[in-house]
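Usage

Read records sequentially. Each one opens with the input sequence:
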Amino acid sequence: MVNFHGWFCLSSTFVYPDNLKYTTDNLIQEKLDEQAWNEGSTNLFAHIKRMNGGTYLYIGGDRNHFGIKDEIFELLEFIREVDNGAYGILYVHDDESRISAIATGYGVYIMKRGKIHYAPDPWLSPLIPTVEDEMD
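and closes with the structure output:
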């Protein structure tokens, strides 16, 4: 089983090399539409929300297998490229992962200053016994 949850604070504008200005949230929404994040699946969500002058992207999902892994990291790389001021976190749990921290708990992907870093989660991991009891 795989579940992931994340939030990202987006900057307001990005200037393409031809000096045309686009809002980063429009570019990211186009990417979400291209990847069909919100079409027909009740196991995934991605939406951009504007609140109190800020723009935020929320993503999450719960799947049997990590079939959407490429789309998630393609989306994060796209955000990093078009908005190097974006920051946020993505928590991932995948019981089939080769990374033991993600298989037994959560791994955290941190976006800040145009880079994406991985760190093991210190608060919810390992899932057993930190948040769940071992099954008999």
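Summary fields computed downstream for this record:
- The chain has one domain: 2-130.
- Residues 69-82 form the longest helix (14 residues).
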